[in-house]
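Archive record
______________

***
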Amino acid sequence: MALLGPISLRQGGWEWDHGFPSGNWTRFKSYAKRIRSLSYSSQRYDDESQEFIIEGMSPGVPTQLLHYTASNRGQYILPQIRRIRWYCHRNSQLRMIVPFISPKVEDIRLEAGHEVSSSEVERSFRALQAILPPRIAVLHFCQRGYRLDQLRGAVEALLEPQVRLQELRLPCYPMGPAIFKPHLRILESDLYVVSGINMEQLLSQLADTYPLLEDLRIMFWEGSNIQFQVVRPLLRCSALRRLDLEYSKTFDLDTKDIHEMGSAWRELEVLHVASRREYTSSTATTFGTPLGSLAAFAESFSPKLRRLGLYLNTRHIPDPPHSSVRFPNLETFTVGTSSLVARKANVAKAAAFLGALLPQEIGIYRSDYYVWSSYLSVFDSDGLRPPTSAWLALSQMLSQGETTEILSEESDSDSDSDSDSNSDLDADETDSLAG
């Protein structure tokens, strides 16, 4: 904008000081034709005031640019643009992307804030449907605050001509055959457990359609539990490198399930299975993948596994495995909202078991269910939280190698009380560990 004339930040955003400019368009076009990627956000967070500040374009600017385009035989503002990332926070800002679309664009990533209404999203999708070239390879759309069920018509109309899609991310939009495009390698969508849909049949269709799928993220909603049988069809997707199964209820694995997964997914690098749950301390002890099952993960999965997220049941903490099996290349391990009794001998015993399986310098993270949202993976940088209380102590023991001394000190005096502490979950996981 500044290439065409003086600009100022006003209440509605950046605007030209003297109306639509008649500046040096030749110079502007010489710069614009070099642009391949555009990233736009309509606000930023100011650390000093601790407030979000509007810094996007004034609503009138895109209209003026469209008028220029129409007056110049359809010349594109950014004729060589390939990739657009667009973050908007208010109504009307989503459609402001329109003047910047060109026939060369291949990658569109949109995010709309809570204040952007569903009707505005629908209008914007209709506008994009009319101008997007049928060559889009990557399409992301994230709407914060509500699901997109009511916009099926607009979403399907937008996707229908996009036969070259390879990456489609639509959190908060229900999975179905309408979004199964021929060349997909990456897919993100929702599944509703109590919607009446046969989830196993739908995932079987997905696996048959995309046997070479590489990256899959599913957010399961509602219901009270999911059995491994539901996702078993995905074992046919042998090329998977990343699998993220998000669910806030019960979704637990036994040793047989783990061995099947490890045998089928030899290329898997990232695995997350429902680690962020809304259990209270009184119910958590009866659910979760047993801590001892981690040995089955280490034994069954390929050395390519780098990130792992699970909800663990730490009611019973086994002794360290005698075999040499371990995770050779694991970098990140998140336990989600899993609980661990905050008692020194108990934590040390868990650390001794995990220390036999995990690399010493591994990062262990914990999550808070209440910060979870469907647009944020547990492995995204904003989704990772440092461990607290018992998990923090465990992480320190792993890195500092303290477990042997602690267990030796307390083995005689606490052998009986350890059993009791493992059966009564500490709801607060207090930071002060009892000696």
